[in-house]
Amino acid sequence: AKAAGKNQYSFYNDQLEKKLQLKHQLEKALSSKNDRQCFEIHYQPKVNTNTQQILGVEALVRWRNHDNQLISPCDFIPIAEETGLIIPLGEHILYQACSQAARWQQRGHQLSVAINVSTVQFEDKHFIDTVKSVIESTDVNPNLIEIELTESVLAKNIEHAKQLIHDLKEIGVNIALDDFGTGYSSLSYIKDFPLDTLKIDQSFVKNMLHDATNLTIIAAIIQMANGLKLSVVAEGVESEEHAEKLSEMGCPIMQGYFYSRPIPEAELTEKYQLS
Ligand code: C2E
Ligand code: CA
Ligand code: CA
Ligand code: CA
């Protein structure tokens, strides 16, 4: 029992050490503007399966460390949030994603670019000014930009969220509710916030073919979105069977590994002939 206790102790110690190391590296990478290039944005297409056309992409950040390994956002976004480093990082991501949307726009491709925004960013009092100045400096059509928020971001401070979403809509950007259906959501979010898009959470999609409850929930979300004139996107589409079923159910807009993983801009440009 004593040995097990010791192992347990060193396990937590190792975890803590790893986290501190990551935090230190993150601080270093964000302290100099030049080092920010190690945060790469990959893009995952959003496809309309009725027309087989790419409608837009979601911007997803990755971190390339000293050893040239790509670190997943699940491993560093929480640390960036805890430390406040998500503010400069978020600004960098916003700038990169808007610049990319502007480049596609200049080449005649009206691709929307969805950008994830976390609670800490959303609560930052400079957030709206940052969005405004990035849109101005990149010269992107704000209608091509979609901000993805989760229900928990909205729940944190409803009055603040209402004001900020109002301000964002005034600039012309679109708002998507991400991971919809997870979290202890209330339908009043849909009523109270002027949303443009609902993103059906991957967990429902993943289980839809073998579990009638998930299928029923998806059908209800699609029907509600159609009734309220919101776009609806299914996430985590991994197979043709999923795609066919979703399309049959009236949700032709999809994102998932079946179409493409998140990939670097150059790869996306080649795959979808966006040059
Ligand atoms: P999310 O916003 O829900 O993003 C969707 C995640 O699902 C992405 O993971 C994507 O690669 C993955 N995914 C897409 N299609 C499939 C599929 O068919 N099957 C499966 N199993 N997974 C799929 P990723 O890139 O690792 O990002 C994880 C989370 O990290 C994101 O979840 C988001 O919450 C956060 N994140 C990523 N990039 C950013 C960012 O730029 N800013 C902020 N604040 N958060 C970010
Ligand atoms: Ca997202
Ligand atoms: Ca999601
Ligand atoms: Ca998520």
3D architecture notes:
This protein has 275 residues and is of the alpha/beta class. It is 52% helix and 19% strand. The protein is built from twelve helices and nine strands. It has helices spanning 2-31, 73-83, 86-106, 119-123, 127-138, 151-156, 158-171, 188-192, 202-207, 212-227, 240-248, 265-271; strands at residues 39-48, 53-64, 70-71, 112-116, 145-150, 174-180, 197-200, 231-234, 253-254. Helix 1 (2-31) crosses helix 2. The longest helix is centred in the first third of the chain and has 30 residues, at 2-31. The radius of gyration is 20 Å and the shape is globular. The mean pLDDT is 93. One calcium ion binds at residues 178-179, 199, 235. The site of one calcium ion (CA) has 4 residues, from loops. This is Cyclic di-GMP phosphodiesterase Gmr. Residues 19-275 form the EAL domain. Keywords: Hydrolase, Phosphoprotein.
Unreliable runs = none
Gyration radius over CA: 20 Å
Average of the residue pLDDT scores: 93
Write out the distinct hetero groups bound to the structure. Answer: ligand C2E, calcium ion
Tally of strands = 9
| Quaternary organisation | single chain
| Sheet/helix structural class | alpha/beta
Overall geometry comes to globular
Instruction: State the distance separating the first and last CA atoms.
Output: 63 Å
Helix/strand order: HEEEHHEHHEHHEHEHHEHEH
Share of β-strand residues = 15-25%
Keywords: Hydrolase, Phosphoprotein
GO biological process, one term: regulation of DNA-templated transcription
Domain EAL: 19-275
Protein name: Cyclic di-GMP phosphodiesterase Gmr
